[in-house]
């Protein structure tokens, strides 16, 4: 049944992959306007809204640092000076480079194209700065690094089963086959997995932008057509911290285990 297929997919995926070039660079998406998080974002960018005592962005950066990432490219647009000042004041082992989108907000795909020269030629993590997750039995970035296989994949997305997507009201994003290969939710239907804002991308995917401003969905669609978009199920907790109402939910779950 489905449970057996999931177990099989997990077993196949977790085979060590000694030939993979393990990502040591990350792009952190921090340029958005945070409209759904108003009024908290009237005076601060969404990545600096505090959850459980520290800014959302710092939760992600702490995990990246613990996961062995050294170089981080951060794109900025809304209240960009505030984000830059926050990064400059942060004492850590991460080397930050700013991808400046002050002149024009480029969305996720356009942001990746703009940052492409800063990212190098190896696969890299791309992380939404407003993401809040708790690791499962395995540390998230280590798990994804182990599964990443550039011979088969152009992108590897971290997904959570719809039933465990806290504070999330969508209908799901993807179906995942027994080998981890992804396909889209069909219009009018639901899909079992939600994308949760963490992925590994091959720079080879970041070509031929359709416009200045566009979504990463364009790249994912190309990877699906080539049979090279893969996913892995997150074993821990994930929260969609998109609105002020989600913050006390996150804090309550964390406080009460």
Count of helices?
A: 7
- Structural class assignment: alpha/beta
Radius of gyration: 17 Å
Query: Could you give the order of strands across the largest sheet?
Result: 5-4-1-6-12-8-13
N-to-C SSE series?
HEEEHEHEHEEHEEEEEHEEH
Largest sheet: 7 strands, mixed
What are the low-pLDDT stretches, counting only 5+ consecutive residues below 50?
A: 4-20
Helix proportion of residues, in percent? 25-40%
Mean pLDDT: 90
Number of strands: 14
The percent range for strand residues is 15-25%
Q: Compute the separation of the termini in Å.
A: 31 Å
Using the alpha-carbon principal axes, give the shape. Answer: globular
General description of the model:
The chain is of the alpha/beta class and 257 residues long. The chain is built from seven helices and 14 strands. The protein has helices at 2-13, 56-66, 80-89, 107-119, 140-147, 217-225, 246-255, and strands at residues 25-29, 50-51, 54-55, 71-76, 95-100, 124-128, 132-134, 155-161, 165-166, 174-176, 182-184, 193-201, 229-233, 237-239. Strands 5-4-1-6-12-8-13 form a seven-stranded mixed beta sheet. It has a three-stranded mixed beta sheet with strand order 7-14-9. Strands 2-3 form a two-stranded antiparallel ribbon. The longest helix has 13 residues, at 107-119. The radius of gyration is 17 Å and the shape is globular.
């Amino acid at each position: 049944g489905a449970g057996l297929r999931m177990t099989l997919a997990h077993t196949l995926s977790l085979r060590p992959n000694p030939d993979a070039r393990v990502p040591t660079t990350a792009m952190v998406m921090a340029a958005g306007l945070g409209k759904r998080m108003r009024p908290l974002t009237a005076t601060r960018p969404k990545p600096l809204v505090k959850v459980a005592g520290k800014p959302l962005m710092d939760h992600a950066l702490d995990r990246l640092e613990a996961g062995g990432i050294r170089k981080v490219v951060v794109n900025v647009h809304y209240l960009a000076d505030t984000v830059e000042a926050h990064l400059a004041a942060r004492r850590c082992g991460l080397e930050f480079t700013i991808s400046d989108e002050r002149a024009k907000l480029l969305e996720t795909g356009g942001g990746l194209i703009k940052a492409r020269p800063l990212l190098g030629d190896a696969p890299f993590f791309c992380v939404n700065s407003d993401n809040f997750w708790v690791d499962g039995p395995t540390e998230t970035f280590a798990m994804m690094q182990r599964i990443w296989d550039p011979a088969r994949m152009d992108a590897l997305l971290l997904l959570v089963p719809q039933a465990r997507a806290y504070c999330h009201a969508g209908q799901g994003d993807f179906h995942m086959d027994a080998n981890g290969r992804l396909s889209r939710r069909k219009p009018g239907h639901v899909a079992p997995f939600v994308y949760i804002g963490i992925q590994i991308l091959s720079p080879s995917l970041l070509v031929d932008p359709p416009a200045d401003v566009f979504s990463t969905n364009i790249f994912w669609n190309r990877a699906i057509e080539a049979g090279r978009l893969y996913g892995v199920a997150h074993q821990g907790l994930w929260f969609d911290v998109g609105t002020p109402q989600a913050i006390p939910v996150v804090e309550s779950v964390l406080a009460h285990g």
